[in-house]
Design brief:
10-stranded antiparallel sheet, binds protoporphyrin IX containing FE, Catalase HpII,  Chain A, domain 1
Length: 477
């Protein structure tokens, strides 16, 4: 006999789940049918707000294994010795689309990792591109508005998109990557991942290094051409989620090798304009990639909502030996994510199994909606005289000097050198596809001024770049 009884959420067995309780065979439904009321009411509450960006994504569990000794650069315990393994969870996503959007749209891809280290969670919340569209957090909501729907028509607006980009020349580098072949990865498995910002590593003796993270896919980079991507968007909008899940299901575990570029701290302070500007890359000739370890994804989530939808990642979640940098965009992000989590998942989102660290949590934050891990005992304050919590010197953030006058600063107006260099790395065929992709989108803009302003940006990066786009648009500059 099956004793797997259906119950209410309070554990009482349910006698009838097919017919509601009515007054007589054809009578009205009774309010005393508590099971019906609970079921309908809970259903109404099944959704939490989708992420305001990166709403659509896939998640997977895995393991990170150190393959190279980097302990002289960072005291982070999870990187302390070759062979050390740390459980992790990744969420891979598109940026602009809603929860049900197609996976194969031209868009950057999110690459967010949570390492469950012995010293607490370390979150690395990056993208599949080494740079970003803007470099000041003040511009983020405006930028995202142009990527999302027009408030009047509820349609995507190429005009808003190119208007904003053409007026924000710092976006040119990322726009060039987005419109290139890499703008539509073949799958989540076939793309690199980047921390994008500069971060700081600190070793046991307090020496500091600026570092840039690069996850290189061991599946090789593969991309989709625009027409196949459009076809797939119609045939299978969940193509990327399905691909990742199937690969893991069949034991074909995808992996990435993590490398870092390491820039000595003082040297880094002399190249602030590049290092703290997320629209710029740092030369790999000068600062070559140093291997750190391998990340392998080996387990699918059991439940999408619990593990993927409710997962929360924040660039502010760091561990001793790893710190942020003065990059303005990163600084803005340190506020934005925790705030989003408190709104989207709740004040106690960090207590959920997917977000909770494996390390002991012992602080005096308490109560609030759905708190179920309040610390036992009476000592809910620090400092205290009763063997309660104490601070750890090792975890103090590292000092460095800042000077200057308060102001709204703009810096380094060279928006064109790096996009120009990138353009010239592309082969003839790649340049053709890049400019075709740009024109397919830019030609949807009716305002001639916007088109001209954007084409001027391409010209400033490289004459041929500008000329190709202008020619394909039949535009006289
Ligand atoms: C998600 C804000 C720049 C990568 C999010 C979310 C917010 C946000 C509010 C939703 C979080 C949630 O609901 O859980 C911002 C702001 C930025 C910024 C204000 C600039 C000031 C960036 C950059 C990157 C990035 C530069 C990559 C280098 C991601 C990723 C996610 C995300 C991967 C999805 C995380 C997940 O899978 O849960 N961002 N973002 N963002 N952002 Fe950003």
């Amino acid at each position: 006999m099956n004793e797997n009884y259906l119950t209410t959420s309070h554990g009482a067995h349910v006698g009838d789940n097919q017919n509601s309780l009515t007054a007589g065979e054809f009578g009205p439904v009774l309010i005393q049918d508590v099971h019906l009321l609970e079921k309908l009411a809970h259903f109404n509450r099944e959704r939490v707000p989708e992420r305001v960006v990166h709403a659509k994504g896939a998640g997977a569990h895995g393991v990170f294994k150190v393959t190279n000794d980097v302990s002289h650069y960072t005291k982070a315990n999870f990187l302390s010795e070759v062979g050390k393994e740390t459980d992790m969870f990744i969420r891979l996503s598109t940026v602009a689309g809603e929860l049900g959007a197609a996976d194969t749209l031209r868009d950057p891809r999110g690459f967010a990792i949570k390492f469950y280290t012995e010293e607490g969670n370390y979150d690395l919340v990056g993208n599949n591109t080494p740079i970003f569209f803007i470099r000041d957090p003040l511009k983020f909501p405006d930028f995202i508005h142009t990527q999302k729907r027009d408030p009047r028509t509820h349609l995507k607006s190429p005009t808003a998109m190119w208007d904003f980009w053409s007026l924000s020349p710092e976006s040119l580098h990322q726009v060039t990557i987005l419109m290139s072949d890499r703008g539509i990865p073949a799958t989540f498995r076939h793309m690199h991942g980047y921390g994008s910002h500069t971060y700081t590593w600190i070793n046991q003796t307090g020496e500091k290094y600026f570092i840039k993270y690069h996850f290189r896919t061991n599946q090789g980079v593969k991309n989709l051409d625009s027409s196949l991507a459009a076809k797939l968007a119609g045939e299978n909008p969940d193509y990327h989620i399905e691909d990742l899940s199937n690969a893991i299901e069949h034991g074909d575990f995808p992996s990435w090798t993590l490398y870092v570029q390491i820039i000595p701290f003082e040297e880094g302070l002399n190249m602030k304009e590049t290092l703290f500007d997320v629209t710029k890359t740092v030369s790999q000739k000068t600062y070559p990639l140093v291997e750190v370890g391998i990340m392998t994804l080996n387990r699918n989530p059991e439940n999408y909502f619990s593990e993927v939808e409710q997962a929360t990642f924040s660039p502010g979640n760091t561990v001793p030996g790893i710190d942020v940098s003065p990059d303005k965009l990163l600084q803005g992000r340190l506020f934005a994510y925790g705030d989003a989590h408190r709104y989207r998942v709740g004040a106690n989102s960090a207590q959920l199994p997917i977000n909770a660290p494996k390390a002991t949590v012992h602080n005096h934050q308490q109560d609030g909606s759905m708190a179920y891990k309040n610390v036992n005992g009476s000592i809910n304050y620090e400092p205290n005289s009763f063997d309660g919590t104490v601070e750890d010197e090792q975890a103090k953030s590292t000092n460095y000097k800042v000077t200057g006058e308060v102001g709204n600063y703009s810096y380094n107006d060279d928006f064109y050198t790096q996009p120009g260099l990138l353009y010239n790395i592309f082969s003839e065929e790649e340049k053709e596809r890049l400019t075709d992709n740009i024109v397919a989108s830019l030609s949807l803009v009716e305002n001639e001024e916007i088109k001209k302003r954007q084409v001027e940006q391409f010209y400033k990066a490289d004459k041929d770049y500008g000329e190709r786009v202008a020619k394909k648009l039949n535009l006289k500059i």
